[in-house]
Amino acid sequence: MKTHRPATWLGILLLVASVATPASSAEAEKLAGVVASVDADAKKIVVTPTGKETTVDVTVNDQTTMATAAGKVVKLKDLKPGDGLGIAHTAGVASKIVVNVKPAELTGHVKTIGANLKTFVVTETGTTTDVTVAITPDTSLVTVAGKKIELKELKKGDGVGISHVNSVASKVVVNVKPVE
Questions:
Q1: pLDDT (tens digit, 0 to 9) for every residue of the chain, 180 residues total?
Q2: pTM of the predicted structure, to 2 decimals
Q3: Segments forming the whole domain that contains residue 162
Q4: I need a surface site. Which of 5, 60, 90, 152 has the fewest CB within 10 A?
């Protein structure tokens, strides 16, 4: 296993500040980044450190604790690329990992827009499943070119990519359907 441990990784994210140092004689190092891949069989996480391009291998064992900042236990098999991590480790073996779960994503085409302009229905790409998505004043709606738009500007057939938590959109990127 190739382990990289530059000191510049210390304190990169606020997330790392919440990772406690384990009670041991060895000082744990801290690493912050995102999951590049997971090998559950080998008990290994490949992490892309914040601000870096090269990845780092981190091993987990039976003593490694892994949970969200809210304390919800996370299993290695539940990690997915893009999840944020704050890791306390010694020689590449994690003692504690704090997980910032990447929001769920949905892609599809607009089917209908709610009359109250607070929801819209999307037909998910690759299926015939219709998903009702709620928006709040905090939801960001933008075109693929980055222009802010309002929900009332969406049209049936517009392509959308949606980051959401429990069907409440945090960000909607719209690929506007061309006028026919």
A1: 444 433 333 333 333 344 443 444 457 899 999 999 999 999 999 999 988 889 999 999 999 999 988 899 999 998 988 889 999 999 889 999 999 887 778 889 999 999 888 999 999 888 888 888 899 998 999 988 889 999 889 999 999 999 887 668 888 899 877 665
A2: 0.54
A3: 104-175
A4: 152
Q: Are residues 96 and 126 in the same domain?
A: no
Q: Collapsing DSSP states into helix, strand and coil, what is residue 166?
A: coil
- The Cα 79–Cα 34 span in angstroms is 10
Asked which of 41, 75, 100 is the last residue of a domain, the reply is 100
Task: State how far the Cα of 109 lies from the Cα of 111, in Å rounded to an integer.
Answer: 6
